[in-house]
Amino acid sequence: MELNIIYEDSDLVAVNKPAGIVVHPDPRNPSGTLIQALALRYPEIRNVGEDPARPGMVHRLDRDTSGILIVARNASAFSFLKSAFQKHDVKKTYLALVVGSPKDAQGLIDLPIGRSRKSPMRRIAGKGATGTLREAATRYRVRERLGRFTLVEAEPLTGRTHQIRAHFAALGYPLAC
Questions:
Q1: Given a cut of 90, is residue 62 above it in pLDDT?
Q2: What pLDDT is stored for residue 117 in this prediction?
Q3: Is 62 a catalytic residue?
Q4: Which of 33, 42, 26, 37 is closest to 3 using CA atoms?
Q5: Which of the 8 DSSP states describes residue 39?
Q6: In the prediction, which pLDDT does 128 show?
Q7: Residue whose C-alpha is closest to residue 111's, from 61, 163, 68, 162
Q8: What angle do CA 143, 158, 47 make, to 5 degrees?
Q9: Which of 62, 89, 104, 110 is flagged as catalytic?
Q10: Is the pLDDT at 19 greater than 90, yes or no?
Q11: Which helix (H) or strand (E) holds 89?
Q12: Most exposed residue of 20, 97, 125, 163, measured as fewest CB within 10 angstroms of its CB?
């Protein structure tokens, strides 16, 4: 796998992850993951972190999400970065193309997220969510209205799986891709 490294030093690596790439192994994707490719290039990360399947990882991106992933190269960087993410000292901003046109130019989506009754692997917000519902909040701002679609800037204030997808779908503006 070709890696698009945008920054590296002795403590961390920042890699631009393309959409469609799985970040870490799971039962359905045991190989060919981004973290495995990074461990080949930076073997020292194999001993960093709390989970051998996710060495050096302090956050993740969904398979279908592109963006910058930061990976720790040593234990002290891992501890520092993990703490920064937990305390929300790191601001994450995403661009998303949604179907439709939200009436408000900016807003806060504050809906708990749970599992879908129809597809337990899928996360949904609002009506139909089941299991343990976890608080979730996403701040958004419309960047550009493009006919049937709208480009929005989304800032998750919490870090739930599929949070941006679930929140915009619950408002009736699903992600276009």
A1: no
A2: 87
A3: yes
A4: 37
A5: H
A6: 82
A7: 163
A8: 115
A9: 62
A10: yes
A11: none
A12: 20
Beta bridge partners of 55: none
CB 11 within 8 A of CB 73: yes
pTM of the entire predicted model: 0.84
Three-class SS state of 104? coil
Q: What is the pLDDT of residues 32-61, one digit of tens each?
A: 999 999 999 999 999 999 999 899 999 989
Name residue, tokens 């920042």: 14
What is the C-alpha to C-alpha distance for residues 147 and 71, in angstroms, rounded to an integer? 38
Quickly list H helices, the chain: 34-41, 75-86, 163-170
The answer to whether 26 and 37 are in contact (CB under 8 A) is no
Contact (CB, 8 A) for 23 and 33: yes
Report CA-CA distances (Å) from 51 to 8, 10, 16, 85, 141.
Answer: 22, 21, 22, 17, 36
Strand partners, 17: 67
Q: Take residue 108 and report the two structure tokens written for it.
A: 């806060």
